[in-house]
Each structure stands twice: as C-alpha cells, then as structure tokens.
Amino acid sequence: MEKGRLCLCATPIGNLEDISLRVLRCLREADLIAAEDTRNSARLLAHFGIRTPMTSYHEFNKYDKAKLLLQELLKGKSIALITDAGMPCISDPGEELVREAAMAGISVTSLPGPSAVLTALSLSGLPSGRFSFEGFLPRDKKERQERLREIAEEPRTLILYEAPHRLRKTLSELCTALGEKRRISLCRELTKLHEEILRTDLSEALLRYESEDPRGEYVLVIEGKPRRELLREAASRWESLSLEEHLSLYLKEGLSEKEAMKKAARDRGIGKREIYRALKGDGRESEKGSP
User: Fold this and answer.
1) Angle 41-198-207 (CA atoms, 0-180°, nearest 5)?
2) Starting from the edge strand earliest in sequence, which strands make up the sheet with 54-56, in order?
3) Is the separation of the CB atoms in 138 and 144 below 8 Å?
4) Is 152 exposed, middle or buried (0-12, 13-18, 19+ CB in 10 A)?
5) pLDDT tens for residues 19-76?
6) SS3 for 267?
7) DSSP β-ladder status, 107-111 and 5-9
8) 8 A C-beta contact, residue 143 and residue 52
C-alpha cells in the first residue's frame, strides 16, 4: 500500500487574502485536515468554501493524536496540518507529528506562507541578517530567569511572542535583564486592520503600557547586545591577569606560543604586536617575523 503525505500549511496571521493558492488547493484535496482549533479553522475553511473533514491536533493531545494520524498516513491518506495562524511547528504544535511521520518514511512537505516572526522582523527596522527566535518566555520562574540571562548576552536580534495580559510584566523583566535603552519594536495585530508598530526602547515601551492597556497579540523584536559592549566586557575579564598569566593559560591548553599570543590579543582587544613587545621586552621581532 502506498503511504500518504503530510503537508504543513501556513495560514493567514490576520488578513485572509494572505493565504496562498497552493495552500487552498492542498486543503481542498487533502483527505483530512489536522487543526489546532477546529472551531477557529472552521471559519477559515468556510470563507473559502472548503469542506474537507477536520480533526483536532493541539498542544494537549499532540503525542497520542500523532500516533493516530500516523496510522492514517500509513493507510495512504493525505493530511494537511494547520495552526490557528501562521506556520505549523513554529511555537505551535506539529514537531511530534513531523518526527513520527519522517521516522515512518512518510513524505512531509511544507507549504510556505504567512509568518509572524518574519513579518515583524522585516517591519522592525532592526538588523535582520542574524536573529534568534525565542517564542514565548517560560512560565516557570527559575527557567524564565535563566532564559532572560541567556538572551541578555545574545548579539543577534531577538524575537519574542507575548500575550497582552503578560506584556507589562515581560517588558519590566526585559528592562532589568537587558537594560532600559535596548531598542525594541513592538508589533501588534500584524496584517490586520489595526496593525501597529512601535519602534522605541524598552524603558519607553514600558512607560507607554503602564498607562495604556495592551491589546492584541504582540511580537517583540529586540536589538541584540551591541558588539562594542561584548568586546569591552570580554576584555575586562582578562584585566585581573598579567599578560604572562593570560598567555600561560593557552600554552597549558597545548597551543603554540604564536597561537597563544594571537588569542590573548583578541581577548584583550589589542594588536598582536603589542602582546609580543610586552612579553619580549625589547620590541624586536624574531627571525621568522612577528606572530
């Protein structure tokens, strides 16, 4: 018996016109649609006149339901996986089903489309060449503090999701962990009628929402830790060591003197020649040239 196919279908994050023709065809032709919230998805399907049967697949049944859906795929059924909005598996259920299907040799394909992550990043005005998507911060207090400490040192642009009723708390925690002047773009109601992008810093964002009730779902795009700060902090960590002690650390790791000098220079944010002259004393280069 020929195996079925699993299609990951991106659905609109707001404006229904953003759905692709390919996704519409897949939803019509699939034997079954696995939806995060069948009531929410029913409105989407009704709008486009799609009558394909649906079944629920969400955070609370994803393991058991994945096994049932896998059986249907093994019988040759084609299944389209959708979430409430955006791309399945991106801070939404789907990873377990994709893993099970792939391990069973089922064909899995992704139909690209709307993504709150990339939409917000493109609108933010912040560096977009490298970024770190963090989804929602953990609810557990200890895990949350650990994550905040981690992202405080992240040099790439950060992207977080947040619900309106938790926005003030999250902004306050980000101010403390990242610093009040870290730039942020708060993107709400993306692609919808009341879409709004607030480009400011963390302290101003917190000030605004202390007097204004947050509304709608938010994507927070935050400036990464500036490189100059990372370099300054890295250099300061070595200030307590003499150059000889610093070099000795790398020599004990098995590096050659030349490589040890190069790494020590990079750590301290100075030139290799400065390291060489300070250690050699007379400033003369070796016969083979300076390292």
Assistant:
1) 115
2) 54-56, 32-35, 78-82, 5-9, 107-111
3) yes
4) middle
5) 999 999 999 999 999 999 999 999 999 999 999 999 999 999 999 999 999 999 999 9
6) helix
7) parallel
8) no
Cα dihedral sign, 135-137-139-143 = positive
Integer CA distances (angstroms), 282 to 134, 247, 261, 277, in order: 52, 18, 16, 7
> What does 231-252 look like in DSSP terms, one character per residue?
HHHHHHTTTTS-HHHHHHHHHH
Q: Nearest to residue 111, comparing CAs of 140, 81, 142, 74?
A: 81
Q: Which long-range contacts (CB under 8 A, 24 or more apart) does 49-55 make?
A: 50/24, 52/27, 52/28, 52/80
- Eight-state DSSP code of residue 218: E
pLDDT in tens, 199-224: 999 999 999 999 999 999 999 999 99
d(CA 212, CA 206): 10
Give me the helices (H) in the chain, please: 21-29, 38-47, 62-74, 95-103, 116-124, 141-152, 167-178, 202-211, 227-236, 243-252, 257-268, 272-280
Q: Helix or strand or coil: residue 29?
A: helix
Tell me the pTM.
0.80
Q: Of 38, 33, 37, 15, which Cα lies nearest the Cα of 23?
A: 33
CB atoms within 10 A of CB 123: 17
Calpha distance 75→167 (Å, rounded): 45
Q: What are the tens digits of pLDDT across the range 119-174?
A: 999 999 999 999 999 999 999 999 999 999 999 999 999 999 999 999 999 999 99
CA dihedral sign of residues 105, 110, 115, 119: positive
